[in-house]
Design brief:
Length: 416
């Protein structure tokens, strides 16, 4: 496959600045009215403000959970959780294959083995059935991702995990304040992790957090993630029993995130309405397969709008289809092929193939292979999955109509 000349990956506003779009751009982000006030408090206090604690308490209250531990992102939040669970090297964690590198990093640093469950046919998410096929005597936990804001069908997953005594935890980066059967995404498992990255729905530069109702997990996560696993011993000072981490959310990020939290609920409600409206507009375009929003999703906190094309119906390739969408005005439309972790994590493929620790035997119990064939449903799905991640609360009905008309125009011009 010719991949062209690779460039360093870009993040935040920088990643969006070259797109020419007729739709509302993601940047500049809408910032909560109290952001300046909270930032000023941090400055006026000479960095002695309790902003991070204030954010943690407010977020926990909004989520109706006992604990929130703020981190500099979701990647560190999930790393802290991986360290907190304290499994053995070589233990297996079943994880969604369609996600971001940040979902997996913590597992690898803790020397666990990620086992990618396939997605359900035609869906972006894993299911109880696809997870069950991956359970072995080394499985310790299931880490689900609610990709694009579509929440996994959690009840069967929780039942399966209970039967096998597995911990379930959630990556809620793309589903903040989304609801499943009346319950908030992030409140189903033992713990959940969030991202407040600049691009995310609750965007506040780079930030994240863990939530949990489990006192022991909360204490351990705070100690492991914030206190670097250090206790202060009288007469000596700090002693470290373990490889703790230093992932504390900075006060200025906490100030921004607190302000963003104040405006998130109406934003998510609007996103839900607009995502459903746009879905209804593209549903009848021949060859376009919208992402199905399951009935159990009461509030669709859609981050990135996506659909598949039926390649049999078109003369052009999915790559060409995307290029034409961009030329017509959906500037940041693209294929999401790289979300397939077993294919895009090249270092993981090398480690497994060369049996580098923890893939050496022991601690690994068998030979792992990561490639594009590891999860065939997910691979097939992503080959024709087109999405743009600037979909946001700025969208009005007229923007949905414009997006649908562009999709319709490109489909009509390229249909067989
Ligand atoms: C599903 C998912 N998990 C994890 C991450 C990593 O989040 P962060 O950038 O806050 O570390 C992202 C960010 O893109 C994500 O979308």
């Amino acid at each position: 496959m010719d991949m062209g000349k690779p460039e360093n990956a870009k993040f935040g506003a920088d990643a969006f600045k070259d797109f020419n779009t007729k739709l509302p751009g993601l940047f500049p982000r809408i910032i909560g009215p109290n952001a300046m006030k909270y930032l000023q408090e941090v400055v006026d206090s000479g960095l002695a403000s309790d902003m991070t604690t204030r954010f943690e308490k407010t977020f926990a209250k909004e989520y109706g959970v006992k604990h929130c531990i703020a981190t500099p992102g979701c990647t560190p939040a999930l790393h802290v959780l991986a360290a907190t669970f304290g499994f053995e090297p070589g233990d297996e964690i079943i994880v969604s294959p369609v996600t971001d590198y940040g979902t997996v990093l913590g597992l690898l640093y803790e020397n666990y083995i990620p086992v990618f469950a396939d997605t359900e046919e035609g869906s972006v998410n894993v299911s109880a059935e696809t997870i069950e096929k991956c359970i072995t005597e080394r499985t310790r936990a299931v880490l689900v991702v609610h990709k694009t804001g579509i929440i996994c069908d959690m009840d069967p997953i929780l039942r399966l995990a209970e039967k096998h005594r597995l911990i379930v935890y959630e990556d809620v980066c793309q589903a903040v304040f989304g609801k499943y059967k009346g319950r908030l995404a992030g409140t189903f498992g033992k713990a959940a992790a969030f991202s407040f990255d600049a691009e995310k729905t609750l965007g506040s530069d780079t930030g994240g957090c863990i939530i949990t109702n489990d006192d022991e997990i909360a204490d351990r996560a705070r100690y492991m993630g914030h206190s670097r696993d250090a206790k202060t011993v009288p007469g000596f000072g700090r002693v470290h029993q373990d490889q703790g981490l230093a992932y504390r959310m900075p006060s200025c990020t906490a100030a921004m995130t607190l302000a963003q939290l104040e405006i998130i609920k109406p934003a998510v409600e609007k996103i839900d309405r607009m995502a459903r409206y746009l879905t209804s507009l593209i549903r009848n375009i021949d060859g376009i397969l919208p992402l199905e929003i399951p009935d159990y999703v009461d509030l669709y906190s859609c981050w990135m709008f996506g659909f598949r094309i039926d390649p049999e119906k078109f003369l052009c390739t999915p790559e060409e289809f995307v290029k034409r969408l961009a030329d017509e005005g959906i500037g940041d439309a693209g294929l999401g092929k790289y979300y397939l972790m077993p294919e895009s994590l090249k270092f993981l493929q090398r480690k497994a193939e060369k049996k580098i620790y923890p893939f050496s035997k022991p601690p690994a119990s068998f030979d792992y292979v990561y490639d594009e064939n590891t999860c065939p449903n997910a691979h097939r799905f992503l080959k024709t999955f087109i999405r743009w991640s600037s979909f946001s609360e700025k969208y009005e009905k007229e923007h949905c109509e414009l997006a649908a008309s562009i999709i319709e125009k490109v489909a009509r011009a390229n249909r067989k």
